[in-house]
UniProtKB/TrEMBL annotation:
It comes from the Bacteria. Pfam families: ARPP-1. It comes from Actinomadura miaoliensis. InterPro entries: ARPP-1. Residues 32-334 form the ARG and Rhodanese-Phosphatase-superfamily-associated domain. This is ARG and Rhodanese-Phosphatase-superfamily-associated domain-containing protein.
Length: 343
């Protein structure tokens, strides 16, 4: 997979391979990177490529069946056919039950339910429930993802409370194990990233950078699946860290005043836009070249027919992937983040 100049851009922008970001022999053959988009501190690079059929999209097929006490969450695949791949670190804000997040992905066959015994409660005490019309799902902020992955299989509903409290404290919020202090109360701010970044036709993945640092690589089986998790990723998994970065920028002082493109005609404006686009592509290529690399460990967790779910752990990248042979079908990989207590 490469990032290249867009047609009409000035020559000379770097071409950078992404093969080193994927663990082991996994293939991203046929996948392409699109033009980077930036919204404040958050940069998103679209990924397009061949779709993998037969996977149930999470919003339309995967349902929260029940929360059976603390740390026990049951999901149901209501589709008539097709296997559901549970998005890694998905969580639910729901009425009349404690808010939980999952520490791992899983397969759920059509018409089947699965009880996750190792879910993490992300609300340290009762209260703060939303009404049914406000129910929605999120993906854990990148600052919490390494700890959540590390504690998959651990049956302790309070296992993320200290980490959530530390995250809240770092954001100037009360140091409590209540993730809704960020996800719910700051939701109007975080959803701005969804409106400022545009999901592209045919997009089935993305690279996310925060302040020029790789935050994550997300890949879905097909565009429909990715569209279902788009809001959860851009607003919560990566938007939270971007919002925090913008807070730091604001404290450091106002940014220098942006200057308009030096153009006096439409052709000159188009040329200026092409130069700006090429500069952004070259900048992202430079960020990719600076991403640390190194060995990773790939541990198979479960199988469904020809699909394999594996956990990836390494110093520069961690997460989970679903593969068919050497083809990557689904991937949710994130970089270690400053302040993450799991490092």
């Amino acid at each position: 997979m490469t990032i290249r100049d867009t047609p009409g851009a000035t020559s000379g922008a770097a071409t950078t391979t992404l093969d080193t970001l994927m663990p082991g022999p996994l293939s991203l053959a046929g996948h392409r990177l699109g033009t980077p988009q930036r919204a404040g501190a958050l940069t998103m690079v679209p990924i397009s490529g061949p779709a993998y059929p037969g996977i149930v999209p999470p919003r339309r097929g995967l349902k929260l069946a029940r929360v059976d006490g603390y740390g026990r969450v049951e999901l149901h695949n209501g589709a008539a056919d097709g296997v559901a791949i549970v998005p890694l670190h998905i969580g639910y804000i729901q009425d009349a039950a404690q808010n939980h997040a999952l520490c791992r992905s899983a397969f759920i066959a059509a018409g089947q339910s699965l009880m996750f015994e190792d879910a993490a409660c992300v609300q340290a005490s009762q209260g703060g429930y939303l009404t049914e019309r406000d129910q929605w799902f999120f993906v854990l902020p990148v600052e919490l993802r390494a700890r959540a992955l590390q504690r998959r299989g651990v049956h302790d509903f309070s296992k993320l409370w200290d980490d959530i409290a530390a995250l809240n404290r770092g954001y100037g919020l009360p140091a409590r194990g209540h993730l809704e202090q960020i996800l719910s109360r700051k939701r109007p701010v975080l959803t701005q990233f969804q409106s400022r970044l545009e999901l592209q036709p045919g997009q089935l993945g993305a690279l996310f950078f925060v302040d020029g640092r790789l935050a994550g690589l997300e890949l879905a089986p097909d565009p429909g699946y990715f569209a279902d998790v788009w809001t959860a990723l851009v607003c919560f998994a990566y938007g939270v860290a971007a919002w925090h970065a913008e807070q730091r920028h604001a404290e450091a002082g106002p940014p220098s005043e942006a200057r308009p493109f030096p153009a006096t005609s439409l052709p000159e404006l188009r040329a200026a836009l092409d130069r700006d686009r090429a500069a952004r592509i070259a900048q992202v290529a430079g960020w990719l070249a600076d991403v640390p690399t190194g060995p990773v460990e790939v541990t198979e967790e479960e199988r469904y027919l020809g699909l394999r779910l594996s956990t990836v752990t390494g110093a520069h990248l961690a997460g989970q992937v679903v593969t068919d042979g050497d083809r990557a079908v689904y991937a949710s990989l994130f970089a270690p983040w400053p302040g993450d207590t799991a490092q």
